[in-house]
Amino acid sequence: MRKTTKQEIVLATRNKNKVVEIRAMIGDLVKIQTIADFVKIDIPEFGRSLLENSFAKAAFAFKLCGKPTLADDSGLFVSSLDGEPGIYSSRYGRNDEERITRLLKNMTGAKNRKAAFRVVFVYYYAPGKYEVFEGECVGRIAGAPRGSEGFGYDPVFIPRGHRTTFAELGPATKNRISHRSNALRKFREYLTRKTS
Ligand code: IMP
């Protein structure tokens, strides 16, 4: 029987919650290391779009590690706030609680609660060679935080077709329908095609 070795990739993120989610979704397919296994620095985000940031992180990590890298940049885009916090989602406050408080305050009185999580993954696998995978999860913003699972804006995001927040739904349901899982499904198909 032919023994297949798993493709090794380095995740260009230091966000432990994202690493846990990504491992749960593609850990069976690829051997995952993280940038933290190589260096102890934060990769800065200067881009004007999810793609620019994601590309910069993936290319930077590839130069550092010399291995295929997978980077993601994600954010919460709220209709009534003209897409805020968007690419600034992680910098909207000093911690999750502050970020959620600011979001709900800025939405005071807003009837339109529509929002979407978006993510762009860049898989950088050789010098100058990369692929892009995008994912989205549409939903609405709750009036107040609910639930204790997940991270970030999960306590206020209710995905379409549900009545409860990501933080109430828990990881099994979230990982089936989230923006990250939509994008990683495409990545999984790509890797399977490439290695078959
Ligand atoms: P970045 O991709 O590291 O720039 O961070 C994006 C920010 O968007 C995170 O720090 C969270 O605040 C938020 N975010 C991205 N994905 C999720 C998610 O799945 N749940 C909750 N918040 C998220």
3D architecture notes:
By secondary structure, this protein is an alpha/beta fold. The protein has one domain: Maf protein. It is 34% helix and 25% strand. The protein has six helices and six strands; from the N terminus they run βαβαβαβββααα. The protein has helices spanning 16-26, 50-65, 96-106, 166-169, 171-177, 179-195, and strands at 7-11, 30-34, 69-78, 114-126, 129-141, 157-159. A six-stranded mixed β-sheet has the order 2-1-3-4-5-6. α1 (16-26) crosses α6. The longest helix has 17 residues, at 179-195. The protein binds inosinic acid. Residues 15, 45, 72-76, 89-90, 117, 150-154, 178 line the site of inosinic acid (IMP).
Name the descriptors.
single chain; 196 residues; alpha/beta; Maf protein; six-stranded mixed β-sheet; globular
What's the short version?
The chain has 196 residues and is of the alpha/beta class. Helices cover 34% and strands 25% of the residues. Strand 4 (114-126) and strand 5 (129-141) form a beta hairpin.
Helix fraction, binned, reads 25-40%
Supply the number of structural domains: 1
Total count of helical runs of at least 4 residues: 6
How would the global form be characterised? globular
Which ions and ligands are bound to the chains? inosinic acid
Give me the strand/helix succession: EHEHEHEEEHHH
Largest sheet report: 6 strands, mixed
Classified by CATH, the class is Alpha Beta
Q: How many angstroms separate the termini?
A: 16 Å
The gyration radius over C-alpha positions equals: 17 Å
Strand content: 25-35%
- What fold name stands as the CATH topology? Maf protein
Trace the largest sheet across and list its strands.
Answer: 2-1-3-4-5-6
What's the total number of strands?
A: 6
Structural class determined from secondary elements: alpha/beta
Average pLDDT over all residues: 93
Looking at the overall shape, the CATH architecture is: Alpha-Beta Complex
Unreliable stretches (pLDDT < 50, length at least 5) are: none
